[in-house]
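A reminder from the course coordinator: this example appears on the midterm review sheet, so study it carefully.

Given structure:
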């Protein structure tokens, strides 16, 4: 099993798609990494040699920011927006959608479960 950047890559997937399990690496970045290290993208993770894993690990460490480093940067950027009080920062503070989505209906993922309204007694 290959372990890169603290992530265990799934054994039965091709290395092209297994690299995408690392936070900060998408499809295009995975292909760039594999091209620069001369590793065949369609080989399975269980079939890859240790020297290829080492080449990939070194390439990622030298040229890309991934996992904790990247997550911290995103968190810091969101905190900066909240501190300066801009519109996007206010939306983050209120835990509402940030990018202009409607909130009258939908937005349940961001807003959470709808609060139940108590039954009113009729006279």
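Designed residues:
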């Amino acid at each position: 099993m290959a372990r890169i950047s603290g992530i265990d890559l799934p054994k039965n997937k091709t290395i092209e798609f297994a690299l995408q399990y690392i936070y900060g690496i998408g499809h295009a970045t995975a292909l760039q990494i594999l091209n620069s290290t001369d590793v065949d993208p369609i080989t399975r993770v269980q079939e890859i040699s240790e020297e290829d894993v080492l080449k990939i690990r070194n390439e990622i460490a030298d040229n890309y920011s991934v996992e904790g480093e990247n997550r911290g940067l995103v968190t810091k950027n969101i905190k900066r927006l909240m501190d300066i009080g801009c519109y996007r920062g206010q939306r983050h503070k209120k835990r509402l959608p940030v990018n202009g989505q409607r909130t009258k209906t939908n937005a349940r993922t961001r807003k959470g479960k709808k609060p139940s309204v108590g039954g009113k007694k009729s006279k």
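Residues 68-111 form a domain with the 30s ribosomal protein s13; domain 2 fold (CATH 4.10.910.10). The chain has two domains: 3-63, 68-111.
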